[in-house]
Structures are given as structure tokens and as C-alpha cells.
Amino acid sequence: MSELFDAVDALLASRAALPPPAERKRLRAAHGLTIDEVATALRVRRATVSGWEAGKTEPRPPERDAYARLLDKLAQLYPAPAGTTAPAQDATVSDTFTAAPAPAERRSRPTGQAPEAAAVSATENTPTPAPAATVPVAASRPAPTTRPSSTSRRPGAKKAAPAGTPAGGADPRFENGPLAVVDVKDGKVLAYCTGGLVLDVPAKSIPALVDWTLREAKLGAPKLSGPGKDADPLLVLTEAALERYGLPVMLTEEERLAGRLPEGHKVIKQLARAEWKLTKRGFGPWARIYRPATGSERACVQLCIPSWHALDSRHWGAAGQLPPAELARVLGVYASRVMTPRGSTAVTGLELMTALHPPTRASAPDATGKRHSEHNPGSLGKDPVDCAPCEAPDGHPVLKDLPRFHVRGPEEKLFEEAYDWARPMTDAECTLRHLVGIDVNMAFAAGANGLTVGLGTPTHVKTPVFDPKLPGSWLVDLSHVDLSRVKVGKDKWAELDASLLPSPFTPKGDHPSGPAWYATPTAAYAQELGYDVTPLEAWVRYENGRFLDGWYNRLRDAYLATMADLGVDADLAPADFLAAMNGYKERDPDLAIVVSAIKATVKGGLGKLRERPRGEGWRPGEPWRALSRPTWRPDIRAAVISRTRINLHRKIVKHAAFTGQYPIAILSDCVVYAADGPSPLDFLPYREGKALPGGFKLGINPGLVKHEGTQSVLWGEGVREQFEFAELNLARYIKDGTVTDADNGE
């Protein structure tokens, strides 16, 4: 009989009554819930809830019954006003932003200060308008809610919780969000939080501000993984706040070069008297103020000072010039989707790796019931490991016995870098009208996805047998690989014009002339193309794992969610995708800043894996500060870059084998082809809306491509004649066609 009851319950749940889509969104927003929170509670994807609120899809059991229950409870709390209907609103608008305030006057941005990123689409310059369905409707933004930090919230004042909080709601310890922008208005110090909340700040000094933040502000964010640590609260100090607290609005040239205030500054003395400490980087643009942890309690606050150039305009655009409420929104979205910034985007990218894979965890209880710290499997551990000699950059201590001016060749040094390759156009290509650039989305993130990397120390192996699944560095001669005849399938060979292709084994595309060191993905690709790989020696890592998977997933989700908020969804048809990318930044310039910062987090985080000396009085052969980090891992960086370059070459080969078209220039993740028309659809092979398997595919997902820019063939020839350099890399200038100087490869 119970089975019959279960069947009846399931039948009822399948028809659970739901309000109209617009009302679903109104109810969620009325309670201050984000789409991410609802999705987490119902154990579905964010896009699924967005589809329900837009009326594109309907929930099915078992989620439908739970969703109906949620909406029913919310309807009791927030009944619709009599005689009104809930307004329809595009579901692609970011709900992190709908709860945020709008300043009375938006500060304009100088034209030249837009964030520049290598992967930005140049379809913004094409006249084709985006379809109305893909352009998000501007969200209404209520005025900020101001309250004293020590009192309870006003009735009805709700705010969105940051993504990543428990499904039951925001962590009460961090109910005011991960960060606040501290400003002074009409003589009062105010803290602008995410979600539109504004707190009164009673603190009259920096030490008091730190105390207030830890005792009353309820700022911070929950840890991203089980053994990890909660994120410390972040305070962003405006120029007015700096003046109020006795700090300089700008650093002197000497202070800027040192990256900090002098030790004798009065504010540093105030902190010392209050028994607060600063980290080794001192009181600079990203200052960390702390007291040593006692047990599980942490006492640390981080400061971000935009006027000291904490927010690099190359990655954060004009964020440093935004009004406090807008800056809180921008940093808040980044914090909820990536993590609370810990410094530059590069530093944050590296810190995200550690936050997702902490080096230690608590052990099982021993005989006395006590737990101990132990190695966390899958992490890089808490101690640095030495790299192999071939993986070491010039000047590394492992190379200190080399002659002073010795230059290592490919047989001594692993050199895995991104492409910088170009060739002259053929006569046939010169008869075409356009040069079209396509750019791989989040190319290096895609290269990290699913990649097995070494976790521990390398083992030197003489005359090894190559294993494409074993991460490491291999000394092997690949000069016998002939690109004129390669495998493009399991048992399928293709005849190609090798003179029109770059070699997959070198960044400049030159054919190797003898043994050289390669990361595993590069050597494995030679096997994939149908050629023998017989290493002479190797440095391999038997302890390995997919360390970067969680890092990739979080950054991918952050990127896709933010692009969806800008009207560029992951499931658009090719033509609709190109149209949606047209002018996407202008739909919400603040969100466009977040996109730029996310992409910079990927590239910068990977770059930090092989950070070089930064002054510090360093001399070749001596260790530098970065070497003391477990995350100083040039082998992991090399493996990601190797796989990214190989992924691109594989697509180029598939495209050439199917269409007979070859690239003219490649720069990192941008590829230029000659075509009869100005659009990528004029040369990318699509059949019934489906892309060539294994080739280039238009879309916003990492690894897919977007339009980078189009110039005329005459432009390309003119640039080369002007600079008298036949192999000038046109991919560097394809976006807007501006060439300011001769190409120097930088």
C-alpha cells in the first residue's frame, strides 16, 4: 500500500501549482534570495532556475514540488499588492546586481580606460544589432539601506547572500557580505556593503576600524572547501577614508617603488601600540593586518587601497574610479563567484588554487580523541618542492654551477610557451577580401581542465618509456614528425601543406632540429599525429592528480554566469552568439569589469606558478621569495601552456584537413584566417548548425571561439610593407587594426 501512496504523492508533485514566471522572480527577490541560493537548495544548476523564472522551461519532479513549496511560503510572506501584477523581467539580469544601489550620478569613464584583455570580442565594432531576446533589461536598483552596525536590521530590509554560502541561507557570521567600501560622506564614515547595505562606522582610527570590522561588521565569507579557511573581511578605503584615518591619498615615488609606507609612519605605530601586526609586504596597496591565531579563531582584516593602484586598470578597468556603492557591487560579484580578492588578480588566482585544495586537513581522532594536522591528499602540500633542472628558469639556484654567461638551448631547457607565429599570405589568399580573427575563450583555463599534473617531487629517469598519462618533462627528438601527413582520427591520415602550418612543438612554430625538452601534452601529441616518441631521459612525477579541476570549474562558472548576465548565454546558435557579443560590455560596464578580472585571474594565477624575482636585491644563483611557496611550480605552468597550444594546433589541423584553409597568424589564443566575408561564419564549416567535430566552434564556453576582429587583406599587406617585415604577426593588431610600432614579439 505504501508504494501506492508514494505513486500518488509523485503524481501530485508532478502537477504542483506554480505562480507565473514573473511572480516567481518577484517572490525570490522580495526575500533577498539569489538565483545561486535557490539553485543550491534545490540541487539544480543556476541556469535551470533562471529558465524557470524566464518561463523558458518548467520544473519537473522531484524539484517541482520543492520549488512550489518554496514559492508558496514566500507568497505568504510577500503577497502581491492588490490590483498589481508582477513585472516581467529578463531572467539574464544578474540578481547580485538587482539588489544593489545605483548612485545618483554614474561617474563617466575615459574612453581609453576600458579593460583590455586578449580574448575580448571585436564584434563590438560591427553594425549588426543583437537580437532583443539576448540583451538583458536594466535592473531596478533600490536606494541603499543605512543602519548602525550594532543594531538589528530594519524590518523588511533584505540583502542577497554571497554565492557559496550554505543552502539554508547566509552564514550568520558574514551576513553583511565579504567586503565593504569605506567612504566619508557629510562628515560620517560609511561602509558600503554588497546588496545595497550601508553601515555606520564609529571607528576613529585604523586600529579601531580593524577592531570594529572583526567585532561588529559581520564581514567575511565561508571557506571554499572542507579543510580550508574562511575568507578574511576586505575593506576598500576611498581617498576620503584615507584622509580621515591619517593615510596619504597617494604614495610618493619612493613608497610606490617600495610597495609600502615606511615603518615609521604614524598609522603603523598606532597598529603596533594596539598589538596588531602586518605581513611581510607591509602597509601597501593590499595590506593584511592581523593578530596570531588562537585555536580556530582568526583575527585578520585585509585592506585594498585603489588610489595606491591596488586595482590594476589593465585588469580592473576603471573600477578604482567608481563611486563606493558601485565598487562594492563589482568587487562583491567577483568575491561571490571567484573569491574575496587577496591582492592582484594574479595573486587571487594562485590563492584560489590553495583555497580549493588546502595543504593540510584534520586527521581522524587518535586514541585520546585528539585530531592532528596531516597532509591533504590531492593538494601541493605545505612545503615547496624543487623543480627539475630543465624546468628551472635562468638564475635558479639549481643552475648555480653553470658558467655565468651560458645560454641554455632546447636540449637543456623546457620552453613551453604560447604561440607567436605568422607567415606571408599565399597568392590565393591575397585574392580574398578579409582577414578574420577568432579567439579562444578562456583558452588557458580550458587547457587546465582535466589535466593531470605532478603533485610531488620529480624523479629522474634515464632511457624511459614514454607514458602519455604520466606528467613530467621529456627529452626527445621530434624532428621526424612530418606535418604533411598526420593522423586526424583513429586510423585516418590526412595530407596537408606543411609549409603553411606552424610546428606544434615550438612557440614560434619552427620545426625542431634535434632533441628538446617537452611537457607531457606536447610529446603525447606527436604520438597522436602518428609518430614514434622515444625519450632519451625524463623527469617524471609519479605522485599526480587533477589539481586544477576545481579551480577551472569555479572560474568557468564565474565567467559563464557573468557573461549570461550580459546577455551572452552558453546555448546560443552561432549567428545569435555573434550578435549577442556585439557591444556586450555596454549593457553593464560594471559587469564587463568583472569579466575582465575573471580572465586576468586565470592568466595571472598560472603565471604566478613560475614567478620570477621582483627586485629584492636578488642575484643569479640565489633563491628568491617565491621559491618558498608550495605553489611555485613551473612544471604545472608548462603543462597547462603545452596543452593549451596543442589544443589549438589540433583544431587548426582538423580545420585544414576538412576545408583546405590554413592560418596566417597565431598569437596565443587568437588565430587569423583569410576569408571572402568579414564574419567567422564565412570560413568556419557549419552543417545544419553543427560545427566540424574537433574543429573550431562558436560559443562562449571555455575552449570555444568568438570573433576577435576583421580587417581587409589590403590592410594586412599594407602593414607589412610599412614595417618591411613579411612575417609581422597580424594577429596582434587584428582587433582594431591599429599598429603603433614595428612588431617586436613582446
Descriptive labels:
alpha+beta; 8-stranded mixed β-sheet; 5-stranded antiparallel β-sheet; disordered C terminus
Describe this structure in words.
It is built from 22 helices and 25 strands. The strands form 7 sheets. An 8-stranded mixed beta sheet has the order 1-4-3-2-5-8-7-6. A 5-stranded antiparallel beta sheet has the order 11-21-22-12-25. The protein is globular and about 70 Å long. The relative contact order is 0.12. The chain has 746 residues and is an alpha+beta fold.
What's a concise summary of this model?
The protein is of the alpha+beta class and 746 residues long.
Main sheet properties: 8 strands, mixed
In whole angstroms, the N-to-C terminal distance is: 75 Å
What is the CA-based Rg, rounded?
Answer: 28 Å
Enumerate the strands of the largest sheet in spatial order, edge to edge or round the barrel. 1-4-3-2-5-8-7-6
Note poorly predicted spans.
85-143, 150-169, 742-746
Shape: globular
Beta fraction: 5-15%
Structural class: alpha+beta
For the residues shown, what is the average pLDDT? 86
Annotation field: number of helices: 22
| Count of beta strands | 25
What percentage of residues falls in helices of 4 or more residues?
25-40%
